[in-house]
Amino acid sequence: MRRRWSRSSKRYLASSIVLALLAGISIHSYLVRLASAAAAAGPRVPMVIAATPIRRGAKLASGQLRLSSIPRAYAPPGSFTRIGQASGRVALADLASGEAVTETRLARVRAGPVASLIPEGLRAFAVPTTLPLGAVQPGDRVDVLATFNSGTPHTEEVVTEVEVLFVLGQTGPRPPGTQDTGLDALAEGGGGQTTLLLLVGPDQEGRLAFARAFASLEVAIAPMEAPP
Hints:
Elements: H1 7-41, E1 44-50, E2 65-71, E3 123-129, E4 141-148, E5 154-168, E6 194-200, H2 202-214, E7 216-221
Antiparallel strand pairs: 1-2, 3-6, 4-5, 4-7, 5-6
């Protein structure tokens, strides 16, 4: 004797079939949207990224870089598709592991040891200081004060919180990853005086040149910014 389905069992079966159909339609719709988005993003292309953290001023070695794959639409402007395009160049900024290596993050090809570290639009200006060796490191921020003795003596700030690019005459350890520019020899025989190469804008460059010609300059070290 065949068992007859109860009315509630039939309703349960019908509901299950409807829900299964709705789930299938939803999954199909999601897959269609996903495929459409992938097509809009374009084919995947190789992109050079940092395989390890890289410090500003470091000369990139091929072992510090690796290739990743990313949809063409999401590749940042100026990115590289071959490691050889970036290896051997100098980093203008710190690069985190996994970060894309782009043209704007690297110094110009065949740039000099100092010019390779200067961001576009800035200049490196030399300022002598009585600060002892080791008191200032590349990356520190300083203020430059000028004391004018002609007329009514007074002191004024020439530039504030400008970044130290390089310290001439520095004989202590360098920050990890920074390149040896060979410029320390320029400070030899200078009586122990330290000269700072500061990153400044064109207007700051003019003020510093005027102050250096007509005033005595002193450098004050600015405090480090508090972490966010």
